[in-house]
Amino acid sequence: MVPLRFLDSGECLLVVEFGSSIDASLNDRVLALDAVLTEAAIPGVIETTPTFRSLAVRYEPLIVDRTRLVSRIVELERHAEVTSRASRSWTFPCCYDAPHGEDLAEVAARLGISPERLVELHTDRPLRVHMYGFSPGFAYLGGLPEALAASRRAHPRRPHPADAVMIAGGMSAIAPLPMPTGWWVIGRTPERVFASGRDPAFLVAVGDEIRFEAIDAATFAALAARAASGEAVARAEAAR
Amino acid sequence: MNAGLLVLAAGPGVTVQDAGRPGHGRWGVTGCGAMDLPALRLASRVLGNAGDTAAIEVSSGGIEVTAEVEAFDVALVGGDFDIRLDDRRLSAAVALRLEPGHRLSVRAGASGAWCYLAVPGGIDVPPVLGSRSTHTRSGLGGLDGRGLRAGDRLPVGAARGVIEAPSAIDTTGLDRGSGPFRVVLGPQADHFTDEGIADFLAAEWRLSPRSDRMAYALDGTPIVHARGHDIVSDAVAHGAIQVPGSGLPFVLMADRQPTGGYPKIATVIGADLGRLAQVAPGGAVRFRAVSLEEAVAARRRLVERSAGPIRSTPLVRRTLSTADLLGVNLVSGVVAAAEPGGSTE
Question: What is this structure's pTM?
Fold first, then answer.
């Protein structure tokens, strides 16, 4: 196993790097360390941010010394239980039909498959939340089949709708806040993955898995109305 | 109707900010908060507020405000801005009582990029994810997630008007100094050649007009990468200096995205972030590498100095009255102990 690298970004951010590539097994180690570090609640540690291959630890150096922090992390990592199992499995309704799957036909054509086949492949297995980034609630989902590995757009498209389901760069994403994007919008979920006034504000934890379930536009409208009234329309169960 | 601050005019980029929105980076939420946090904290402390209380961050676009319903005190700290109460020019760091019917104007002045306008009890907009800071790109926090404009009414936390005459606030506790901004090399310094790093540290950069709350863009001679300009996205710190393919660096500031995919040659130390934020477009920026230990020592010094008593000088001298004494006491006697988490990024 590759040893950990400790990189400093200034005196308040320690980046614990497990490797330099996007690799599910590296991400498993990141999430395992994240879990034990959160559990340990070390005074002076402000927050941890998991990414594909590293865990960023933001800390207050006037409370916890860097040398002590590193030795605690090394010790905790040794006992972290690395698992590829998700703690929760979600089923997310997703409408791939018009008007929601805005780029579905175009990206299916680029991939050389039919739109129907694209939807089949996107819904036939659980995808894992590897990290959040870019904007609030923007979840990067790994585990997509090779056949859906579309490269990003050469130029960003107009802002996607709220709660867009997208693919690009061998990954899928759910993006709650409309932003211009280089990704391909293949559908939309009626669930509000991020609602600032709700507790919890974010539904899905890093490490959870999501399976999409295709719904038609009428069902989308009905579920979106229920979601807007505060009801949860995605379903979660504890993973086996 | 409760006391409030009425915005009579506001340029672009004027927002409500506090000490930021930490703790949600794992959900893709930007840290946000004041660009010059020590300045916001000083303005807050002058009024007896906690250091992370929300204030108005005035950009070089400027603002004009008045008090509604009743008078309350305000404190202004930040760049060398042009501050006027009605037509009377005041010093750049000043505490005063704002009365209904009077107009306080805060405009860009000789230098600096941001000025903080604090009110007693803070700007009382509802907190979002634990912070009142505005992040305009995602529409979170502040007043409806957007910049302020004419006609906006902002609730004042605890309207209190006890300052008799405008007083200049002593800002030496900000410990601004001058000279190059101190950086700790890394976390991806190994993506650059030794020559590239030497050039980066030797150069005089110019702050680009493309700079904003998200990033300060630097113009100059491009830096050479050794190993390409893409990395797998990882978390970024306030002050991290990313170098994309163009070779021209960006210093990531308060509204940075929580993760980024360009190598970071160095990171500006926390103690120098406030001073860097005050560089206006066209201003010169140089860097000097320091050790992590020096960065921590500078941080400790800033926290200690900024926890000291705040001195103020009445702008109009008269025989001392009870109200004067009260005013002096207000600005010097409310000093809290050092805030443990109290520093930038």
Answer: 0.90
